[in-house]
Structure formats: C-alpha cells, structure tokens
Amino acid sequence: MNAGANGTETTDRVIEVHAIDRDGERHVLSHADMGYSYRSSKAAKNLIFTHAIFQGEPEDKSAIQEAMDAVQHHRETVQPIREKTGGSTFKNPEGHSSWKLVDGAGLRGFTIGGAQMSKMHCNFMINLGDATAHDLELLGETVREKVFAHSGVVLNWEIKRLGKFLKNQEITPFSK
C-alpha cells in the first residue's frame, strides 16, 4: 500500500523496499519499481515485504519530538487508535471522503454482532471484543451497500483481507 497521513505518503519518503517471494528469493525494489499510486503499488502480489529504507529530513531532535507529539495527540482525538481496528476501512473514492459517505448514510456507530463502525471516526471498523470474521465481513458489506443506496458512490475496501469470501445466505459481496 501507499499509506499516507498528515500531508505525506509512503511514496514521498521511500528509497527502496526489500521483499522475499514465496520461493524464498530475495528482491530489492527501487521507488520506481514500486509504481506507487493512491493507496496501492504495482509491486508483485506474491511478495512479502521485510523492510524498507526511507529518506528523512534533518531536524532538531526537540522539533521532531514536538511534531510527533502533535500528530499523536491529533490522532487520539479524532481516530479510535486505542480500539481493536484494522485502520481505515474504505478507500476514499475520487472526490469524496469515505467517512462522510458512511456518516451521511446514518451508519456512524452501526453495529453487527461484535463489529461496529466507530462512533468517533466512522471509517474505522471496530472489534468490540467478540467480533467474528463473519461479523466484520457482514458489517463492511452492509455499509458498502447502504452507502451506495444513499449516495450512489461505491466504497472499496482499504483493509487488505486474506482468504476467500465464502458465499452464504447472509453475506454477499456488494457489487454495483
């Protein structure tokens, strides 16, 4: 992914990325090799990333600490960072903010089983303590469907989910 926050993204700082493939072969990818774009890269899907080298900017230690403290304080006041969450649930569609679409559809705090769209920042899905994978998948797909019905905008998952989606009567992946 090309994660971003506070006006910068991974692509702005990465020099090279190290990975290993499923056959155990090591790879070193340059910034250009990564092919970064919004919340994604063109790196091969079979790579497991082990570490990266980033370019920072020289600054006084106290100024760096002050900036880090300000970011931490801001996050604590607007994001549920102390909750069990996978981070932002949905990518921002072109020209929209996912949280505004979720909120506009009346889904802030919406709960299925042990999974909830955060009351603090409604683009964060929270495990209230006993959520199952089923609860989380059903909540996410229900939110996608309700947001589309309300706004006509399709939300796409930002959380990388592993495994196959099991088809059953309760969960059907939303598609426009």
Task: Compile the SSE list and pairings.
Layout: E1 4-5, E2 8-9, E3 14-21, E4 26-30, H1 31-34, E5 47-54, H2 61-78, E6 84-88, H3 98-104, E7 111-112, E8 115-117, E9 124-127, H4 133-151
Antiparallel strand pairs: 1-2, 3-4, 3-5, 6-9, 7-8, 8-9
Q: How would you describe this protein?
A:
The protein is an alpha+beta fold and 176 residues long. Helices cover 27% and strands 22% of the residues. It has a 4-stranded antiparallel sheet. Strands 4-3-5 form a 3-stranded antiparallel sheet. A two-stranded antiparallel sheet has the order 1-2.
Beta-strand residue percentage: 15-25%
Gross geometry: globular
Distance between the termini: 24 Å
Question: Which secondary-structure class do the elements indicate?
Answer: alpha+beta
Q: SSE order, as H and E?
A: EEEEHEHEHEEEH
Contiguous helical run count: 4
Helical proportion? Answer: 25-40%
Computed CA radius of gyration, to the nearest angstrom: 18 Å
What is the averaged pLDDT score?
Answer: 87
Number of strands: 9
List unreliable stretches of 5+ residues.
none
Q: Going across the biggest sheet, name each strand in turn.
A: 6-9-8-7
Biggest sheet record: 4 strands, antiparallel
